[in-house]
Amino acid sequence: MDHASAAPPHDGTNQRRPLRVLVDQPEIPGNTGNLIRLAAVTGVELHLAGPIGFDFSDAKLRRAGLDYHDLAVMSVHESFEAACAALRPERMFAFTGEGRSQHTMIDYEPGDVLLFGRESTGLDPWVKADPRVTDTVRIPMLPSRRSLNLANSVSIVVYEAWRQTGFAGAAVSHAD
């Protein structure tokens, strides 16, 4: 069954929607805890598609998320299909090592769905080929390196997308 924390109201268009991160079948509680914290400090919505590879009472999840759980908008969906039905993405970017576009080449927009796969194997081939996927995207790495950590990858992309959308909602710095 899908469940979610309260999402902020919106006017039905993506112009006022936050960026949305969808992780398909996360396996490591510490990574998910870090993603909860990232969602809380950036205002992105975090969506997890099952099956989930851990119990939400896991101490590593709680420790990594610290006291940010109540500050994040997070939804858990039974499956990728259930997540897509709830999100109804206009644009969904699938992040994979063999992506066609580099993450900095995408012109991100409010409401975009940033799709990442599980830690051990990434996105399933059928998910990358899903017709709802707008583009496959990669984060540059040195040759012969297998992958980045999931939470690090999501952070890199979220901050680039947030930068492009003007850091909407960010605290104003009063430093000189």
Explained architecture:
One of its GO terms (cellular component) is cytoplasm. It is found in: Cytoplasm. Residues 19-159 form the tRNA/rRNA methyltransferase SpoU type domain. Could methylate the ribose at the nucleotide 34 wobble position in tRNA. Strands 1-4-3-2-7-5-8-6 form an eight-stranded mixed beta sheet, sandwiched between helices. It is an alpha/beta fold. The protein has helices at residues 29-42, 59-65, 80-87, 125-128, 150-164; strands at 3-4, 20-24, 45-49, 73-77, 92-95, 101-102, 113-116, 135-138. It is built from five helices and eight strands, in the order ββαβαβαβββαβα. Strand 2 (20-24), helix 1 (29-42) and strand 3 (45-49) form a beta-alpha-beta unit.
